[in-house]
Fold each of these.
Amino acid sequence: MILDRRVSKKADSDSDASGTTAPEMTPLKYFHIDEFEDESAGEIFLAVMPPAPNATSQRRPRDVPAYLAHLWQIPVLTPDQEYHCFRKLNYLKYLASKSICSVVHDRRYHEMFDDSEALQDSIHRVRNFLVESNLRLVVSIAKRHAVPNTDQFEELVCVGNAAVMRAVELFDFRRGTRFSTYAYQAIERSIYGLYRTEKRRRAKFTSEGSDNLEQCADDDLPSNQAILEAVEAKASVVSLLDDLEARDREIVLARFGINRPEDGVAFHIIAKRINLSTTRTVQLFNRTMKRMRDYLAE
């Protein structure tokens, strides 16, 4: 968000005569060039994107799902088009930051907010265009990493999409490099990070509560108290699973492949089984895991 409308803690100093409290706002981060400060900058940087020579859409590859077909209707940006869009995005953020700094202590802030909302919409449009223009790269990388004959592809696409969204915000267009090079590395890091996280989660969950038992087996003379504590730890995990709501328990067990013939199930498959969106399923999984960690830490 461009503007954070939270009420400032310094209410006494930021309130106007009518008692209205000025919002607390944080300027946007952007990459600055000196030309942003020129009076004629808007005419240049907010102009229509230059056309690409012989720009044509491409046909969707046969091994790509139909719901991703629209990505092949978006032409790949030329270097000039890409630079224009990133410069425009950062110039809009520059304008937004100037707007924030000028109205944060202005009593007419609420009258100016409509213009700030319009500026925010412009930023979102340019940002979304840059993301969509590079999603074919996500699909290409996800196809390469997805395990054949599994449903892993969609999950990797979701991870890659999030990586591109972050990369658009962090890309420094002033360096003169292509965004695809930067985005490629960001997508790869996110996918490898997913693999590492899932591996740690599975290892931690499946061994939770049994570590103490294994330690006792290594000791020559384990004490009765140590054995009792180990059994209680493992029982805590089982008890906690039993206490979960049926839906949350199903998500956790399916995700880790516990008491299941499969090694682990992708979130989008679990979501279909319990009739929820993939995003909501991931949220419930993360919430449940946090509850279990907090419980076991007590």
Note: The CA atoms of residues 213 and 228 lie 9 Å apart.
Amino acid sequence: MITFKQLEAIYWITELGSFAAAADRLNTTQSAISKRVQELEQQFSVEIFDRSKRTARLTEKGQEILHYAKSLLEERDNFIERISSSQVLIRHFRLGVTELTAMTWLPQLVKEIKTEYPRVSIEPEVELSATLFDRLMDDTIDLIVIPDVFNDSRCVSVPLKAVENAWMGVPELHTGEEPLSLKELSNFTMLVQGTRSGTGLVYGRWLSEHNITPSKTIHCESMLAQIGFTVSGLGVSYLPVPVASQLVQDGRLKHIPTQTRLPHVRYAVLYRHDRSSNFKKRIAEMAQQCCDFRTFFAESR
């Protein structure tokens, strides 16, 4: 008889690349995972994994079994969700966010999810936008909150609020108060986020549209590093106004006025159309209600 534990073992071995990793993910031992696979192989007299390889690689028949395993596991999750009230729903929820969300309204969202779905285990991930999008497409994460830069028909996109950014630097870097042209601004070293950052993509395109090529750039893959580099006086940078407000009040940073203002960065919730569920729709609704980039490390209400 086929069991969901056997199907889960095959799914996670394939997703994570090894029996040991699947055992960790399913909170069991490697020998238990091996036994589940062997039981299924013996039942149908097939080989699911090619054991001549060093990594867990599916045979042709194993690929076919994985296809049906994914479908059955998805149907099981949908069945459980539909017959369960929110108070008894049990599932693992893989939530991906970028740094800004993690540092502002994520605590409130987590509180709301735990209140409505107390038995859901939240597994948060903080990554760059492109990494989170790739993982969503690879089905290793359930739902992501990122800048709205990926127009992909495979995804449900739920709009959230926008973030105000401004050019900033240490006070001694620019002492004038007259707004600078973008050409004048480009004479400074610019601290920018890379192309795997949603915000980096938005402002990279924006600078290109205005035919601005900085004299020098320093790329930061982390927003915290970008803030640190800016406070260190290494150049000017676009920073979220709410996050940097205290540094401005303390006199460690200042707004650099420009003739052309930066566009706001719109955020969105994304999840896959083929993995849609009432649960994810509800989480997206909660995200819309909780989304507030104005307070740094907002306290749960």
Note: The two ends are 49 Å apart (CA to CA).
Amino acid sequence: MMHAVVHPVSEQLLEAAHIHQPQAVLLFGEEGVGLRTVAKHYFEPKGSIVLEVLPEKNDTVDIEKGVITVESIRRLYDTLRTTSAQRRIICIDYAERMGIPAQNAFLKLLEEPPENTQFILLSHMERTLLPTVMSRVQAIELRRTTQEQSAALLDLLGVADQKKRTQLLFIASGLPAELTRLVQNEAYFAARAEMVTDARVLVAGSSYDRLLLAKKYKDTRVKALTLLSDAAKQVQLALTKDPSDRMITVLSKLEAAQVRIVEQGNVRLQLAALAVF
């Protein structure tokens, strides 16, 4: 298991939660910050029973295209009806994939939690969760790690080539899980580098180029969201140098498209709508 690399501010909050062990915790942060690794490190003690709830499609776990349905929550209900002498940790990964009906069903578990059970929610878009759900969890943001932590992680991973380090940090500085995956999987690194290039086109290319990107990414929700995230990062960087009205509008449209795609909006239509900023 990857070592948990955490921003110092987030680490203080995690340590406090680790001591007090609240009934329900929400860990949220950007894709690649290492939510699952942190959850294992702080909230899954040895000897506990860990049950994971993951997005599904056609009754099969599908991280890219799946959702967490009411039926998934009902199965969880059935599982938790039995008592257990061991502590049970219920980890709901990609909690933003719960639709409103599933969140309402899950809310009943939060309101009347089974004994000896703790809920850990992981989300990259916590704003999609209902206020009633948010009010019943202790929310902890996993901030991006510092530049020094990212550099130290690359040292630990044995990356010495300066050009490669620069590329890696451009793609995933502050995101330890993503940095680790990029270093350990060369094919994935090449694919992500291509996606960063596509994100530049999405921000600065022609309308025709953007329509071609909509066609390229229409079939994979996760990749589409990553593309939008990469584009948003590039716009945020541009805004630090030139806070123009156009870039502010672009960022707003990118973020709105992300939310709609997470909420199961049609990927191709949402990307095509960005053809004209």
Note: The chain has 13 helices and seven strands.
Amino acid sequence: MKIAFKLGYFGDNFHGSQQQSNRRTVEGEFITACIDLGLIRDRKSSGFSISGRTDRGVHARCQICSFFTDHPERAVFAINEKLPGDIWCFAYAEVDDSYNPRYDVFSRKYRYYFYEEGLDHESMQKASQYIKGVHDFTSFAKIKGKDPERKILESEVFTDGEYTVFEIEGHSFLWNMVRCLAYALNLCGKGLLSPEEIRSALENPGMPRYPAMPPEGLLLWDLKTEAEFKPMIPGEKSLEFKKEEERKLAQGRKILEVIN
């Protein structure tokens, strides 16, 4: 049968999500865990598929993968104990043989978190509204021969405590598209770019491409699909990993506070 998992990961120590030889990746770790548990023989024969790629250093709150296995119960109860702490599964679904998360996910939502004081949120929000709809994103992505046109369902900027958040939802995205848009919005927030200049770049896609913001602020937030997922018990490894990351962050803040 085919089973699908919703998974999250902390992207700092991965060379992206896509499997690569001699590189630590999300797919590589997940497939290795499945092979070690006897769930699959290899990627190809299992029909392993994932809903989309994330770049090196990008995090995911919700990603979806699926594969065929003769041991679905073992997969659900054992996968979190076999995965490394910086990947965790939090839901599963028994899906049709034809299910493919790359094509059966009908919208993807990302968030980019800015940690800067003094950003003009009103200007950033105004600019984010121009992003909604169907546009040619040549000025905001690495095209690599692909169709530069994408449909954006939602786009907004809001605050979450000390953070400014850019949230965007669409059917699909181009390489570096969200981070390039975040870069332009960041310039708006600093008063170095007007919202109308972002609109102009969307209406006149021959303009130079904006650079991308660093990957560590980007989070694949949510995916929409018709598959019905059931919650899973989190593994001890991921809980310990998160505690250790919190400890290191707190320690680092204190060092920055007292260092000369």
Note: The chain has two domains: 2-99+227-247, 111-218.
